[in-house]
Amino acid sequence: MIDFFNAIIPLKKEEEDLIRQYFHPRSYRKRMFVLQEGDICQHLTFVLSGCLRMYKDDENGNPHILLFATENSWINDLGSFYDAKKSLLNIDVLENVEVLQINLEDIITLYRRAPKFDRIFRILTERNLVLLQNRMLENISLSAEDRYYNFLSNYPNLFNRLPQVHIASYLGVSPEFISRLRSRRARNPLLGS
């Protein structure tokens, strides 16, 4: 995590020590929940290893995946975390994960003790907003096939890590659609390049 922050804004030794003080390691096993709908998000979560997903179940119990989080990424329900309101989302573990977490009281203390972190988290929030805007734009302007090929291009490390059903849920298509595209791509590897 120190390397992650240093890549955004270089930290002093005292600021690195604050990370060690306020962020706490935690392990979750596959299929465990980090957050369940109806609970209040208690932590900002940074992924050291493994994979999680954030999703919302529809009225038929079908998950609609908003986000995958793997190494060196964040996953949380910010609205629930900062407003202390019940989450409408679930975050669960797709692969065993090691994470670092910080609670609201500690992040506010961290911001006060080292204002640089307030700036770092603002930059992270802005970057994630851009990613969200790009994803929304893709969903309204690209075909399902183009969204699939963009996913492969933007997240090549997830292609073999995730079940097809999760990729389909993220893209808003059926698993059968993904199967057809994978089959077609296997026959013609230049597709989607």
TrEMBL record:
Domain of life: Bacteria
Gene3D superfamilies the record matches: Jelly Rolls (2.60.120.10)
Domain Cyclic nucleotide-binding residue range list: 7-103
TM regions (residue ranges): none
Any matching Pfam family: cNMP_binding
Protein name: Crp/Fnr family transcriptional regulator
